[in-house]
Amino acid sequence: MTRAAMTVPVIGLAALFSSTGVAAAADGSVQAELSPVPVSGPEGSSGTGMVQISGTTLSFTLAAKGLLAGSPHAAHIHFGATARHECPTAADNNAAALDKETAPETHFTTTEGGPAYGDIVVSLTTTGDTSPDSGLAVDRFPVGDNFEYSRGDVQVTEDVAKAIVSGEAVAVIHGVDYDGDGAYSAGDRGVSDLDPTLPGEATDPALCGVLNVSQMGSMPAGGVSTGGGSTTGTENAGLLGLGALAAVGGGVALIARRRTSTDS
User: Fold this and answer.
1) pLDDT of residue 65
2) Most confidently predicted of 21-35, 94-108, 186-200, 205-219
3) Least buried of 77, 184, 250, 264, by fewest C-beta within 10 Å?
4) Phi/psi of residue 119, nearest 5 degrees
5) d(CA 13, CA 10)
6) What is residue 262's predicted lDDT score, i.e. its pLDDT?
């Protein structure tokens, strides 16, 4: 009887670890230094990103400078099982003319970068949905030439979480003013290869960086420095996994109480 009384809580605790084992399988941090995409990336622009994964919960900080002022910049994490898991090179520009595009060799599209970085798996929106469905939610992405923002509690699939912590994902920020008119316009670029209702300038990639395994143990306090500029869409990235730890603590306490009762 004594053996049974002590065994039940142990089994319960083992089950708890088993149920959380899948989530714990993808814990870690990755970070990226973002550089201008060949052909299209604005000269002098740069960015920094960091992503922390706890199970299937993602937190991120993203910062950039030197982009088009006063305009939204879509930002995503890209991944593809058959992609090269890297940023595109100039050789990826296939110079295939798109609708109303008059100089394809001087433009670099998101589609042309696909073989290098894969599809959108996380939309780094400032608020709301973060799934690939929000990939072009231009009203929920950071605005301006300089920005910095953070979000926590973003839910991703187990496969995406594992790909990110394995260093196989790529961060991309979009939006290029090819003709220098200070706004996203059709110009000689034409309409977007992703959505014909948008100008291509709004969706072409500007900055790219591979999310490599980070040597840092946690998200940096205060985010990533851009060297000045505005901050938009900031949400605090909270501590993760406290509920699971509390549950483990409860299981241990239950074992202790059972042992005390049996010994007496």
Assistant:
1) 97
2) 186-200
3) 264
4) -85, 170
5) 5
6) 41
**Residue whose token pair is 């922390």:** 52
Judge whether 228 and 146 are in contact, CB under 8 Å: yes
Distance of CA 9 to the CA centre of its chain: 39
Residue 186: Cβ-neighbour burial (10 angstroms; 0-12, 13-18, 19+): middle
Rounded Cα–Cα distance for residues 184 and 60 (Å): 27
Per the rule left: phi > 0, alpha: psi between -120 and 50, beta: everything else, 182 is left
Given 3-state DSSP classes, what are the helix, strand and coil percentages for the chain, each rounded to the nearest 5? 30, 25, 45
Cβ neighbours, 10 Å, residue 128: 11
Residue 19 main-chain phi, psi, to 5 deg: -70, -30
DSSP H or E stretch at residue 35: strand 28-36
| Token digits of residue 209 | 């960086």
Helix 2-24 vs helix 242-263: crossing angle, to nearest 10: 170
